[in-house]
Specification:
The protein has a 7-stranded antiparallel beta sheet, sandwiched between helices. Strands 1, 2, 3, 4, 5 and 11 form a 6-stranded antiparallel beta sheet that branches. A 3-stranded antiparallel beta sheet has the order 14-17-18. The protein has 13 helices and 18 strands. It is an alpha+beta fold and 479 residues long. The termini are far apart. The chain is globular. Helix content is 40%, strand content 19%. The protein binds adenosine-5'-diphosphate and the ligand O=P(O)(O)O[C@H]1O[C@H](CO)[C@@H](O[C@H]2O[C@H](CO)[C@@H](O)[C@H](O)[C@H]2O)[C@H](O)[C@H]1O. Pathway: Glycan biosynthesis; glycogen biosynthesis. Its EC number is 2.7.1.175.
């Protein structure tokens, strides 16, 4: 990394030049540390150039926390074959801690030194996580970072922070039993739908969402693909959502864990599946009331089918095991295109969850279901994730998830009655039964299983047989 790669950096340092020291330190340490993080999107590809989009001292070393500092960094990473990705890093900086001690005491040590300071992943340090909550409580700016709160949010003192150990695409810090702060790791300009949709649902009084209390974003920072001269303009110039503090739901269990337990004992989870269907329909209704709804004409439905076909082709090119099914699966998308061409072609679209599966649902101690993580599929560009879509997309996601739970534990027959129960629960609230739209359901289920094949091939190759077996079944039913 040469100094010239830092020219876009609007460094915000309290009284000293932050960037050159950071520049010298970050390059070698990020090359080692970044690819090992679960949330790093470009695994397996060589890392090219880094460039700093923004650097902010949230707590200057030698300030309120004595020698300890808290640095906020947005760094662009170039890799061959990908548009640049922008990652959010929160770094602890300490002059005395040797990096080996950081590694044992605080988990992931990023490395060091930076200007004589050891750098480490700050969410793991309770002092720094607490400092971040303190900053979130107060609306206003620190350099390019803008902090906002909901008007009625309460911030009780003394909430002990801990990093969530859940398998996740980002990093979350739980404060006491009161709040959970999700720090988005790969970020792009534009409102993150997780914030946008949970705020809309909370404002509408929905009981199916963990209400946001505060959030922060980067303003006027050009990062990721938006920084490319010929890069996509969508979202460019909009604030970049960086973190959302939401109500924590203590004592809740996620739907995936509950479903797996039921599969293991060949149990009857149908009442829960139906309640989940009803909760999903309630969320769809609330989103349709709060945010725009539109009707796609035949040409738009055909474009949607063409995009699904393209995703299938791209996936077949990347994942050889998908190829044997590709031509039979195409007929699911051809049927959708035909539906668009016909008189029944109009399809209603609205904002939806976008990546609904059992792991995105929490059942509280009161037995009520809440939906979380409205980010959409992490691999899709932000602009696409914010686009209205047919609600059947979420239904298809949940149907796939019941299938995943069953096949993960080798109990395939568990899936069908639970998929049915979900649709029955959904229909009771929505007034329309997804099973009455077989062409839409089949197209969206196929599209989701194709997405899953690519997701598993990239992240969990041992799980690839699960979506592959679904593609084999969908290929037969579509033929
Ligand atoms: N409001 C909440 N209350 C309790 N636990 C939560 C809450 N939100 C998220 N979690 C837990 O954190 C995990 C990860 O959250 P999620 O939003 O899916 O993160 P990611 O987008 O990084 O995958 C969830 O599976 C759940 O276990
Ligand atoms: O939860 P994320 O937003 O990170 O979503 C991604 O990871 C999910 C897995 O953690 C993945 O979901 C797939 O596996 C689930 C079981 O682990 C299963 O319930 C889902 O149906 C299946 O799609 C999701 O696709 C991906 O976007």
């Amino acid at each position: 990394m040469s100094d010239s790669s830092w020219t876009r950096a609007p460094a915000v340092a309290a009284g000293r030049d932050l960037v050159p020291g950071l520049l010298r330190s970050l390059d070698p340490l990020l090359r080692g540390w970044l690819p090992r993080q679960r949330w790093f999107a470009g695994k397996g590809l060589p890392i090219g150039r880094f460039s700093l989009a923004a650097a902010t001292e949230l707590v200057p070393p030698g300030g309120a926390l004595g020698p300890l500092g808290l640095l906020h960094v947005l760094v662009d990473v170039e890799q061959p074959g990908r548009a640049p990705d922008c990652y959010q890093l929160l770094l602890g900086a300490h002059p005395l801690l040797p990096s080996a001690l950081v590694r044992t005491a605080l988990g992931p040590a990023v490395g060091g030194p930076y200007d004589g300071l050891t750098l480490y992943d700050a969410p793991h340090d309770p002092r720094l996580a607490a400092a971040l909550l303190e900053r979130l409580r107060l609306p206003g700016r620190t350099g390019p970072l803008r902090f906002s709160t909901e008007p009625n949010a309460q911030f009780p003192p003394g909430l002990t922070p801990r990093v969530s150990t859940a398998e996740q695409s980002n990093t979350s810090v739980v404060y006491g039993d009161t709040y959970i702060l999700k720090l988005f790791r790969r970020v792009s300009p534009g409102a993150n739908p997780d914030l946008e949709l949970s705020r809309a649902l909370a404002r509408a009084g929905s009981r199916r969402v963990a209400e946001p209390a505060a959030w922060f974003e980067a303003v006027d920072v050009v990062c990721g693909a938006a920084g490319q001269e010929d890069g996509p303009a969508e979202g460019a110039g909009e604030p970049t959502t960086l973190g959302v503090l939401q109500r924590f739901l203590p004592g809740s269990t996620d739907g995936w864990a509950l479903a797996l337990a039921s599969v293991a004992e060949d149990g009857d989870f149908r009442a829960e599946a139906a309640a989940l269907g009803a909760a999903t329909a309630e969320v769809h209704q609330a989103l349709a009331e709060a945010l725009p709804v539109a009707s796609l004409d035949g040409a738009a439905v055909q474009r949607m089918a063409a995009a699904m076909t393209r995703r299938l082709e791209d996936t077949a090119a990347e994942v050889p095991a998908v190829r044997p099914y590709a031509s039979a699966l195409r007929s699911a998308f051809d049927d959708l295109a035909e539906l668009g061409a016909g008189r029944a072609g109009r399809v209603t679209v609205q904002r939806v969850h976008g990546d609904l599966h059992l792991g995105q649902t929490l059942r509280g101690p009161d037995g009520e279901w809440v939906l979380i993580d409205f980010e959409g599929e992490p691999a899709r560009p932000l602009a696409e994730r914010r686009r209205p879509a047919p609600p059947v997309q979420d239904v298809a996601g949940m149907l796939r998830s019941f299938d995943y739970a069953a096949h993960h534990s080798g109990n395939g027959p568990w899936a069908a009655p639970h998929r049915d129960a979900f649709c029955t629960g959904y229909a009771a609230v929505a007034g329309t039964d997804p099973r009455e739209h077989p062409v839409l359901i089949r197209a969206f289920e196929t599209d989701k299983a194709v997405y899953e094949a690519r997701y598993e091939a990239r992240h969990r190759p041992a799980w690839l047989p699960i979506p592959l077996s679904a593609l084999a079944r969908l290929a037969t039913s579509a033929g």
